[in-house]
Specification:
Elements lengths: L1 E7 L2 E9 L4 E6 L4 H11 L3 H13 L2 E5 L3 E6 L2 E6 H5 L7 H10 E5 H15 L1
Antiparallel strand pairs: 1-2, 2-3, 4-5, 5-6, 6-7
Helix pairs in contact: 2-5
């Protein structure tokens, strides 16, 4: 089963997928938003309650950050940045060319309202 949202704010394509063989859900965001897909898959995908608590935090917070096992989410007003913790751990060290090329897979900024819309749609899809 495939469910797609076309043009949710800055997101060009969002696909919500349920794989019947593995009984797993996933979110697929293309291009510069791949880091958000990875964050959702690794940190929020296990339980609807965890996903809803994250959405509630996004709605209520205007500043701050949440650190998870592999990712950190920072809110600054209406902007959200999702950053892989390995980038934060190595921030002081000189970045190699290969690491620089992988930044787009490990870091993403988007509008807070856009991310909330995507996550609420994903919750509806999973219910």
């Amino acid at each position: 089963m495939l469910f797609g949202i076309k043009k949710v704010g800055v997101f060009l394509d969002v696909d919500f997928i349920f794989d019947r063989k593995s009984n797993r859900y996933s979110v697929v965001l293309e291009g510069e938003f791949v880091a958000i897909s990875r964050f959702i898959s690794t940190e929020l995908d296990g339980d609807l309650l965890i996903l809803q608590q994250f959405v509630d935090w996004l709605v209520s917070a205007s500043q701050g950050s949440k650190t998870y096992t592999e990712w950190t989410v920072e809110i600054d007003g209406e902007d959200v940045e999702v950053i892989s913790n390995h980038l934060l751990e190595h921030d002081d060290q000189q970045e190699t060319e290969e690491e620089s090329l992988l930044d787009w897979e490990s870091r993403c900024a988007c509008g807070k309202d856009d991310l909330i819309k995507v996550l609420r749609a994903y919750i509806r899809f999973k219910q």
